[in-house]
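Example (one chain per record):
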Amino acid sequence: MEHLETDGRGRKGQSRRRGGGREKRGGCLLPAAAAVLLLAVLAAGIWLLAGPGREPELVRETPAEIHRETMAPAEWETKEEARAPEEGGGNRTPEEILAEMTLEEKIFQLFMVTPEALTGVDEVYAAGETTRAAIAARPVGGIVYFKKNLRGPQQTAEMLGRTKDYFEETAGILPFLGIDEEGGTVARISGREEFGIAAIPDMRDVAQEGGADGARRIGEQIGSYLAELGFNLDFAPVADVLTNAENPVVARRSFGSDAQLAADCACAVAEGLQSQGILPVFKHFPGHGGTAQDSHDGFARTERTKEELYTEDFLPFEAGIAAGVPVIMAGHISAPALTGDAMPASLSPALTDGILRGELGFQGVVVTDALDMGAITQSWSPAEAAVLALEAGCDLLLMPEDLDEAFGGVKAAVEEGRLSEERLDKSVLRILRAKQGLS
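Predicted structure:
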């Protein structure tokens, strides 16, 4: 029986019975015909065990069988035959996968969204047919989960496991299954009674008390329980150097004001996460530690000079790049001393493509900070923000205010020649390469 559908719809799975009740046969046997009748009875018994008259059996339906019942036989047979050679992605290389993708599939791969944005359900805490259908219609690059989606270990593991299966069945590409689990004030799992995991300390305390060794242990600890639950990406560590004591965002989330210590600890947490199969994300380039504003509400800017940025704020990011960090987040933070304008890094070619990629040499995935934050929504539409982020050099577009509008904006930009499909290919290939080895 399928588990309760909990995409907010409360729909139950179904079960079927095969065969009818057993036929009752009997009568008196005459001694003169005992041998003949005995053979007949044995033959009838064999027929009963193998034929339509066997005892009713409760059959457990798989999600695939349930889905088949909603489709014409010819339709599901055709779809299964078409996907069979590449089930689960097979051993295809990222380049081979990319070569088989349509333009629409490439565009969807660039987005990472909440389960609510994907399904249209107000609050998602499990995955069922609504999720399956949404993934088939919008095969995005990944899903990010928040506290309201996570109610306990069994529920979370089942939801993520089914979601992963649906992506493999319908898209043939593993998704990023992400979470913000930094520890301290930003934790969706640790410290919650439902999960039975002790609260992780603030990163400032981790750095001061245990240094890089303590940070590595924290990374291993977080990575261990995230992997057990089914996550494969964590939006951590915070690589910002706290240079403004009045900073309203980073505060105790940062490893502190010592740039070298922050670099060492950020790399150590990343190493710990990766040892457990979790992709780390260094955030928030070019550095949130020197800002006085919260980019959730509006523009944030760093007043740091070029020299200060290169010698302190960039140090943890440079260390992460040298250590092979796979993903860096471009924040909604402007750096007028470097660019002469107020464009945030997430939408700035000068900061993201020019400095992060060009000067610092980062070749991995650049993910934007959430595109539904005030710093973006107050000035740009979902469509324009998505296009600008790609033009800036970002690859993965996190949480647009409206997924369909953002998708449409990118597609229109390609059709109009503003963005080339080759440009999209570069980002999709980075994303696919980052997913290699994920489970």
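Caption: Residues 1-89 have pLDDT under 50 and may be disordered.
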